[in-house]
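Thread title: Can someone regenerate the structure for this chain?

I was given the following input by a collaborator and told the matching structure tokens would be attached. They weren't. Posting the sequence so someone can regenerate them.
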Amino acid sequence: MGDILAHESELLGLVKEYLDFAEFEDTLKTFSKECKIKGKPLCKTVGGSFRDSKSLTIQKDLVAAFDNGDQKVFFDLWEEHISSSIRDGDSFAQKLEFYLHIHFAIYLLKYSVGRPDKEELDEKISYFKTYLETKGAALSQTTEFLPFYALPFVPNPMVHPSFKELFQDSWTPELKLKLIKFLALISKASNTPKLLTIYENGQSNKEILQQLHQQLVEAERRSVTYLKRYNKIQADYHNLIGVTAELVDSLEATVSGKMITPEYLQSVCVRLFSNQMRQSLAHSVDFTRPGTASTMLRASLAPVKLKDVPLLPSLDYEKLKKDLILGSDRLKAFLLQALRWRLTTSHPGEQRETVLQAYISNDLLDCYSHNQRSVLQLLHSTSDVVRQYMARLINAFASLAEGRLYLAQNTKVLQMLEGRLKEEDKDIITRENVLGALQKFSLRRPLQTAMIQDGLIFWLVDVLKDPDCLSDYTLEYSVALLMNLCLRSTGKNMCAKVAGLVLKVLSDLLGHENHEIQPYVNGALYSILSVPSIREEARAMGMEDILRCFIKEGNAEMIRQIEFIIKQLNSEELPDGVLESDDDEDEDDEEDHDIMEADLDKDELIQPQLGELSGEKLLTTEYLGIMTNTGKTRRKGLANVQWSGDEPLQRPVTPGGHRNGYPV
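Best answer:
Regenerated them for you:
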């Protein structure tokens, strides 16, 4: 109670400030009157009207200095009244400040009557140059601003094509409007009552706590798995130490002239093998033959063969599919999660192949079915969770070569994914997984052709116009998908229809802070520049100058790739090998690699309640079937195809495979 009384004045002041901000005038009068009657002290706060009038005066002074070209007055007010946290931390404020410096640098060139005063002009250009070398240097990696770093060194910027936009009549009014809107937003933020700020922070903290709780549950699940692995490794280690000690003792005994019996060697070697093999070893191996023990010892220390990994229990797929179609949304989500986990957490090799082949042979996703109600329709579920988990499962299938082949059997799968990609605006993770599946689909030539014909290139270019709004996964997979489609002559021809836009988007992406996308951007540029009309458009926009800026900044690999792109830009004929026949629906070009990335299981939406089954336990408790081994020989892909890194990418790839060297 004492604490409440100690802060009562401040609390009442917060209430008064909010009532004043929300314009509850009658309520405020009654509240103030009652506080006075009860002798409750009100903490004095700065009045809203006083703040508003002061803020308006500052805004007017800044706009007046902008209109008059008074550089010193403007930036003195700017630095005094715009907090450093906003100036240095807000990307919009940084970009606006850059353009404001350009405005003052060229002010005399645009608005002087007659020839501008050389000394005054030199002073403004010098001020701009100093800004570029100090605070403005932070934006030198941004493609949008790269041409302006040459502005102080150009003798007559008014006639230079790179600066044509700056001298159009509309440029200054548009910049002024951005300035006014920015100042209004800053003013509004500074007038926000403290009570509202406290509430918003509380809501934000609540969301953070929920995310942290979800991450904690995931971490605990992983820790249990890792603990089991650790305990097994520790037990094997202790066993190995014991065997080693016995072997050392045996060596000492032989030095003393004592004999080692075959039975003893048999017991040592059997201990080095799994329990399942002990009985057969004990009865079938002749340890009296010379070299037998050492041969088995070497075999025991060799890597475990994939066939030795235990197979997972088989499932009742008929019952499973029925519940996926008719069950509750919660049950559907848990089943989709469990089926995905079975695929993503299985051992790469025979175990994973067996899981996948069981899914395919039982047509888990109804790709071979023509029924109206099918598992595939879950991609259009009204439940956000079911929709997301279905997208995750399809992405997991698409991560494996045989899974892509299975999904490709049904032409509706591609259409459904393209539709969901364009419609999904609620759930970022759903869209990421749909995009990931489509990107992996683009490793197959027939699916590339379909996506190009469906106009997916135009959608990708439109999305990539604003890369800062995209997650890292969406950005990487969008650019990689665009590159794969641009490798085809039909894809290049599509790009030629909007050549200027495609070139601008790709040149902007060259300077993006996410360096993982650079090989795909370079590959797309190199590919489309084989088209004469696109080369002509690129030359007109000064693409070579832009590319050479990145040669100064990039690493050795990036520099070599850009040099190839410049060479392509300056070529006059189609390079060898770029013919219309590259659109032949031949599967020889497919990169059939398995890429099961960790992102498939990130940020799970649902967690089991007390006593609720989930994961493998749900599958083996409710849907246990008859054990069958449906594994088959893997179809050979192009695993031996290597990318040198010197040249831009010229074959379809997927980000997971490109980063990890195409793991199996």
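Residues 212-294 form one domain.
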